[in-house]
Amino acid sequence: MSQGVTVIKIGTGVLTRTSDATLDRPSLVRLVTAVAELVASGTKCVMVSSGAVGAGVAALGRNSYPEDVASRQACAAIGQCSLMHIYQTLFQNFGLQVGQLLLTKQDLNDKRRCQRVQDTLEHLLAESSVVPIINENDSVCVKELSVGDNDMLSARVSRLLGAERLILLSTIDGLDGPNGSGLVKEVHDVKDVESFARKDSGKFSIGGMASKLKAVKYATESGIETIISNGRKPNLLADIVAGEPIGTRFYAR
């Protein structure tokens, strides 16, 4: 049933202010509005949302990620509550409900658990008024706190659902070419652009372009078109779904 599903991964930098990692409510309002409009147009949307750890860092008054895993997990436990409350409140303005799934790699690696995840998502997507929101269960898992996991999580969820497309929303317009050559608009083989990736990441985010390209490779090799675009411009989501040349589009192989 999942043909036509659009999976949207939202990076921490899209959801939080760069200065202090507090949740950026105006950005969240714009994002939710754009997703709600997609749903109203008949597009089934699944969101994979980062931001929980960053939100928890801010709630505890820290100015950077803690070094130890237990502190990060505590931040995730606190921040996830804030993040989901905001999503629920904002989507209700459009007559939509949210359904939360917190997943681990084990949930996707074990055949029976994976089938339950798929069944749950498909039942949620069958409800026209529900937007599933997925995050890693960072408050109890260790491996899932490694760099770039939500990029790969979104790719794996896309494959599980047989999604039509995956949109990775970050704070950049797409993949930049080498030596200031500008935005790369189309890519037919990820291997051709892997060397373009810088290995940086934001102060309150995990991962970077290298992480995204790894997820893109997984998704496109699974037959899923993938787009990297700027989450600070969520009004462009409908145009992306319509196939307009926005961001960097990686064609399914």
From TrEMBL:
ATP binds at K9. It is an enzyme of class 2 (transferase). InterPro entries: AceGlu_kinase-like_sf, Asp/Glu/Uridylate_kinase, G5K_ProB, Glu/AcGlu_kinase, Glu_5kinase, Glu_5kinase/COase_Synthase. GO terms for molecular function: ATP binding; glutamate 5-kinase activity. Pathway: Amino-acid biosynthesis; L-proline biosynthesis; L-glutamate 5-semialdehyde from L-glutamate: step 1/2. GO terms for biological process: L-proline biosynthetic process. It is found in: Cytoplasm. The keyword Lyase does not apply. Residues 5-229 form the Aspartate/glutamate/uridylate kinase domain. CDD domains: AAK_G5K_ProB. Pfam families: AA_kinase (PF00696). Keywords: Amino-acid biosynthesis, ATP-binding, Cytoplasm, Kinase, Nucleotide-binding, Proline biosynthesis, Transferase. It comes from the Bacteria. GO terms for cellular component: cytosol. It catalyses: L-glutamate + ATP = L-glutamyl 5-phosphate + ADP. Its EC number is 2.7.2.11. Substrate binds at S50, D138, N150. Belongs to the glutamate 5-kinase family. NCBIfam families: proB (TIGR01027). PANTHER family: GLUTAMATE 5-KINASE (PTHR43654), ISOPENTENYL PHOSPHATE KINASE (PTHR43654:SF1). Catalyzes the transfer of a phosphate group to glutamate to form L-glutamate 5-phosphate. This is Glutamate 5-kinase. The lineage of its organism: Bacteria, Pseudomonadati, Verrucomicrobiota, Verrucomicrobiia, Verrucomicrobiales. The gene is proB.
